[in-house]
Input
Amino acid sequence: MDLKQLRKNAAADFKARGFPTTKEELWRFTDVSELAEREFSNDWAPASVDFQPLGKHVLVFENGKLSREKSCIDNLPHGVCMGSIMDLVDPRVGRLADAQSAFVAANTAYFSDGAFIELTEGIELAEPIHLVYLADADGSAFHLRNLISCGKGSSVAVVEEYIGRSDPSDRSYWTNAVTEIFAADDSSVDHYKIQRESKTAYHFQTLEAQLGANAVFCNHSIALGSGLGRNDIRGKLTGEGGEAICNGLYLLNGKQHFDTHLFMDHAVPKCKSHELYKGILDQKARAVFCGRILVQQDAQQTDAIQSNKNLLLSRAAKIHSLPQLEIYADDVKCTHGATIGQLDDVALYYLQTRGIDPVRGRAMLTYAFANEVLDEVKCKPVKTRIEALVYEWLEKVSA
Amino acid sequence: MALLDIQDLHANVAGNKILKGINLTINPGEVHAIMGPNGSGKSTLSNVLAGNEVYEKTQGEIHFDGQNLDDLAAHERACAGLFLAFQYPVEIPGISNMYFLKSAVNAVRKYRGEEQLDAMDFLDLVEEKKKIVKIRDDLLERAVNSGFSGGEKKRNEIFQMAMLEPKLGILDETDSGLDIDALRIVSDGVNALRSPDRGFLVITHYQRLLDYIVPDFVHVMIHGQIVKSGGKELALELEHDGYAFWAGEEGP
Output
């Protein structure tokens, strides 16, 4: 099916099914009726949002459209292709993400820009590719479509950073992104997502990754922004020896609601998937974590670990944690666990007896809680950026 | 002026009366040992002194270096120069020992109106102090007490004490869980920190520790009260007669 037909079908699909309701199992705790009732336009305006590039390979999307001025796509080594998906239309669009949800259908039907990245066989890109999405157009919807293809034995780090205005504003927009990642045999894809949209924005993204034999996919997702948001992360292990690491951190306050739905599909033997998600919730924030691991009948010697740990800093904060294992093979190593707790009073007392005041002690312990996720971030500039964002968030919370 | 002056101290834990009228004075340079059986209130005393809010002081007065301890929160007591070496040091995953120590040292320096140590000065201080308890470099990089052996944790406590240079060091059963070699290293560390203007309160079950850290005074604590005080020879008597004699119960 060609892309035109695919998009036509998706539009029909979206119209037919509409937005999900809380009656659907996958949307039980995330109510999008407020979003469904709103009207969004596609009028374009420049964005006045600051960003700092991570390295020299940068694509900047301004209110949903690629800005060639702000981007930097020179100096790409041979074997690396990067640009707007509208210019480099690929037959693989929609192959991984098609009809999973109304959001994917809307994206397929209406996407107007996004990043295309391709690495040919054996190419290793040392510096990260930074995809920046700046947004501040009130009442606009941005359907962004990204496709990342890594050839056999190639290696790359890609950072998706969604940035809204940090000052308190009533600008409300809807980011609806879909990213499809093809990781061929023996490739290594380090994927980061930093979501710091405006606190009044809606942010939804579906990430689909397909891994070949011995491919390594390492995903870190940090969510600090948006009023109502959700990440759907779906990994499919289709070749033996594949390894998927999906870690995340959500830091929420005010009335923010953020939902993470992870799905890991072990279709073949000898694959590994490790997931560590941590959340820190203050004030009246709400979070949902649903992690489902499917181990198919043929997927013997699967090694799957999932852990979701939450720290509630206020009595009014709430988390729904739903770990799920579905195992049809008999020779597997699978564990999952979820914890919800407060800061450790004994640890706080210990810090105090060493002269550290309780305000600083709480900030140190909160940071320590998040640190386990940051520890795993290998790409140095990304780590520095995330650490700074976490510090900044903690300072606001403890102030 | 006494370094620590405790008058008629009563304290409760979860509504239970544990301390029932403690009187104790420690002058600068003195090492006092408190010995007593399990449940006599030794650890309660150390926690009340350190400012643990779980323990409720119901009566009496405590003065430390001229200040009424009631006026100081736990962290202020630490900054003022009171240090508690924990019986069970707390593990804090996610915070490296070095970062923890630097935060502590600078918090104390700030309180005392001294300049903050930068990274280089701090490392110099670590180099100087780590010799005292022969602490390994890898333990400094690891998360606070996480995965440390019992002996390593106790050594880390004494190392922290060396870094913070308190006026009064309280050792709460520092000897528990230590083998003889670790006991010697920890004791040597404490002895190295003894000085004419620093006092120590050593809380222990056993006389053994006092062979290494020789006290000036020994107090016997039973049922929340100090029932006898004396010189270092009192520890030997206790070793011979047991606590039961002092508790008014039948001896061995």
Q: What stands out?
A: The first helix of chain A runs from residue 3 to 17. Residues 3-342 of chain A form one domain.
